[in-house]
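for the writeup, i need someone to sanity check this before i put it in the appendix. the sequnce is what the collaborator sent (i think, or maybe the updated version? ugh). structure was predicted straight from it, no edits. if anything looks off just tell me and ill rerun, i have time this weekend
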Amino acid sequence: MAEKRDLYEILGIKKSASKDAIKSAYRKLAKKYHPDNKETGNEHKFKEVQEAYDILYDDQKRSAYDQFGFAAFEQGAGAPGSNPFEGGFGFSSDTMDFGDIFSSFFGGGSRRTSRASSGPRRGNDTIIRAKVNFMDTILGRDIEIPLSVDENCSSCNGTGAKSPSDIQTCPQCNGRGYVTTQRRSLFGMIEQEEVCPRCDGKGKIILNSCPRCNGRGFNRVKKNVKVHVIAGINNGQQIRVQGMGGRGINGGKNGDLFVEINIKPHEFFKRDGNDIHLDLPIDFFDAILGVTVDVPTVYGEASLNIPSGIQPGQTLRMRGQGVKDLRTGKPGDQYVHLDVKMPSSLNRQQKDLLKQYRESIKKDDSSLEKFKKKFKN
């Protein structure tokens, strides 16, 4: 027999973990490894996670496991010839669920697992990633996403039967969805409740299947799902679409679809939280003399006053021109980073004018002379 992994390691928790932490870890891993999960489903790991939860969430079983490991649940544990769940372990037979403990020896499922599997179960949630244009996330927009989903058959309304009269109560389980079986063990006869093999836990059997869905009760269809991209949503955030996830089991509701937003970069605008950043090129004479210009924002053009004498690399703030907050609706700001462009070529007249300007400045007032003086000091 292969050596079993540590139960705490399987759930990824510490030995001091609370019951809430155990339950949280179990739900996360069970969802990940469930056989119905097409991306990460793994039946072996799912069973490992289920076993770890069944033992660690039960205070008595957990105490026994912490003290004796898996030996607490093996034949012959405790004193030779004694019942391993009496005496030294502090357990009595009337407080233990033998279906849970001996299922690995006798092939049966636990009473809890069997009953749960016979009832309606909600489908798995699914997640997809959608690339969305930058401006659509700023202003908001409805987009359509192509999906393949399971829909209830319109011919049989999801029953899988050709007509209502073709649905009958299962005679083997009398509509309960589970049957009681007896197994002989080292400890005598053990009763277990298992999913009815004839109706697969549904409690009903179908005499004649629906020809449109072949008795499945659903059909796989391709459709475009409309998703509303909320104004102000950020990269990595998700939008929930109810009922568009995995198909429910035994009449259970479908899971939900989560659309994770992946924003395409904009050529000019950059987002930081609710603020927008923009690099704005201006000519050197506008930086020297000052100018009022119309600047692009995510909502259209807006007027911006550039004061005279502004320096390359300086930043100006445009209040209220950023992204509106999802919760409060209050907009952020836009920051304009000035990129002062120097001329690469001048004609003779332009050179003469600049020479006149240079000659009009006292030598001691030039930037170079001020730097040299400061450097010497």
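Confidence is low (pLDDT under 50) at residues 75-118. The two ends are 84 Å apart (CA to CA).
thx in advance!!
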